[in-house]
Automatic annotation (TrEMBL):
<feature type="domain" description="Glycosyl transferase family 1">
    <location>
        <begin position="172"/>
        <end position="316"/>
    </location>
</feature>
<keyword id="KW-0328">Glycosyltransferase</keyword>
<dbReference type="Pfam" id="PF00534">
    <property type="entry name" value="Glycos_transf_1"/>
</dbReference>
<keyword id="KW-0808">Transferase</keyword>
<dbReference type="InterPro" id="IPR001296">
    <property type="entry name" value="Glyco_trans_1"/>
</dbReference>
<protein>
    <submittedName>
        <fullName>Glycosyltransferase family 4 protein</fullName>
    </submittedName>
</protein>
Amino acid sequence: MKILVTANMVPFMHGGASYHIAGVVRELQRAGHEVELLRLPFRFSPEKDIARAMEHAQSLDFIRPNGVTIDQVISLQFPGYGISHPDHRVWVMHQHRAVYELYDAAQATAELKQLRAQVIAFDNAALARANLVFANSRRVAARLRDFNRIEATPLYHPPADAESFRCEQALPYVFFPSRLETLKRQSLLIEAARHMHSPLKILLAGDGGQREVLARLIEQHDVGSRVALIGHVTETEKRAFYARALAVVFPAFDEDYGYITLEAMLSSKPVITCTDSGGPLEFVRDGETGWIEPPDAKALAQRLDWLAQHPRKAADAGVRSLEAYRAANISWRGVIEQLTQPL
């Protein structure tokens, strides 16, 4: 089949979404389909640019562009899922979160309030038109149900290069690779370091808009000997840090899916996450494959100190974590079969 995949393009901002998009295109091609990727430019502000992006997406008709018949369209992101096609499948990575679960009516500007109404109306109409709607996780599906009354099927996919992760003898550190941004809550780990008593180290990998803020917080709390901002790491380096970690910490707020959880499981490492972390809670079983703590610095510090004192229990939880990943049967083959299933 000729399949068009739609996604966003945000210049010089790369993360899990980039791997997801590339994976969909690659695996559709491996399944024998002709695939084109259409990336629509997107800006998170100002609000008027987001409204224009929705209007542009709605104006696009890919039934037979330039006389070429496109058999299916698979859309991954807002607002690309607003385009028109008679066989349109949507796999929602996440919606425009600023007007949904991150929306604060008390702090919202008049422009944001207006945009919220526009986006919700856009999503309700676009997703209701879609032939099939999938979600990146149960958490994303729950948001669609709660906010839009749209029922979506959760569809899990493996992280990039899943077969390359490995486990080695643990060293006394925990690892957290992610973009440095507020919702990922690296600051919570830095705060936790103030309350720790063990010599366990915290390695924070990645770059982002919060780097200077986090560096100042490390200095302010005088935890530079315990917390390291190691910056950007290559994929090879990232897998090596996973392999040697005692555990992986992922305390993000209301994550959509979270490759970090799956990458840790593939590395036979337990994951420490929080009660409000969203996607990771679909994989972490408290006390079995990791630990779920309240988003509180002292609670995280106590868990980290406990891990330092019980490395064997951490290793055992890591073994169970890999077993749980394998039992979940997460594969691209299953994803592609569901995305392209006959109507």
